[in-house]
Amino acid sequence: MNHFLSLADLTSKQLHDLLKLAVELKEEWKASVNRPLLKGKTLGMVFQKPSLRTRVSFEMGMIHLGGQALYLSPFEIQLGQRESTPDVARVLSRYVDGIMARVFDHADVLTLAEYSTVPVINGLSDYNHPCQGLADFLTIVENKGWDLQGRKLVFVGDGNNVATSLLFGAGLLGMNFTIAGPRGYEMSPGVWALGKRLATESGSQLLSTYDPHEAVAGADVIYTDVWASMGQEEEAAERARIFAPYQVNEALVAAAKPDVIVMHCLPAHRGQEITDGVCDGPHSVLWDQAENRMHAQKAILVKLMK
Ligand code: CP
Ligand code: NVA
User: Fold this and answer.
1) Residue 106 a catalytic site member
2) What is the dihedral angle through the alpha carbons of 73, 79, 82, 85, rounded to the nearest 10 degrees?
3) What's the pLDDT tens digit per position in 59-75?
4) Active site includes 293?
5) Of all atoms in ligand 2, which is nearest to the CA of residue 158?
6) Which ligand is closest in space to the CA of residue 135?
7) pTM here?
8) Does 244 contact ligand 1 (Cβ within 6 A)?
9) Which of 279, 298, 299 is nearest to 287 (CA)?
10) What average pLDDT is seen over the chain?
């Protein structure tokens, strides 16, 4: 592993190993043990978009590991505007031991990785959100155990960056994956084909449907995300109308298995894609999921930078 750009770049063994390390680091942290595995190391964090979880969990993770993180706001670097993305990669690599980047265009993360001499981590792009995906499978393993073969993960909503990382992770771990969303907002054929390839290797089943109630039958996990992602703000009103039948509410959750867990990467638009009752209800694992960003990313940092 030189960079962490997409879960689809990993083997299922590498994904398992990252999850095991995340569990180990989480247990140590809960026992107030923070091994200085990255003592003296620094992480440069380039943001083109806002963030709560990604920024804070990476920064706290580096502190726990004995290192430091540097937050670079959208205004400072202005990736590709103030100077070219390859030049940003060349210069940042001279100062820091790792780069985490949250970008609009996934091509920018690939360019950073190509021209950087230090590891690059994708902190969300329009294509995928692999750090979120890793934290989510940590949360799923905590709730459903390590053997995910035959378990069913249902994503309700937009076939977006978060859904993409879940599709890839499910394929690697042998978990069945269903997505339910409106026509015109399916996952792209290229993403689906890559998911299919991973799923064939592990024996997991994939399904794309337009019926959310049919989708959640037998679900072990229901997952949703915002209907309009960062950068799609001007489509928000139109999407709110189109996605309305795909709200994760109490009735939809009741149609899944009785012990279903409900997940959301956050930030949530309460009353749109998810109701207050579900966010704060007995099936929600939202806050564990948010905490797990930190533990999962510490595993990534240690694997890449130690
Ligand atoms: N889930 C997630 O990536 O949150 P932030 O946008 O707050 O980082
Ligand atoms: N799909 C969302 C995820 C936010 C963490 C977005 O890209 O804005």
Assistant:
1) no
2) 140
3) 999 999 999 999 999 99
4) yes
5) 1
6) 1
7) 0.98
8) no
9) 279
10) 98
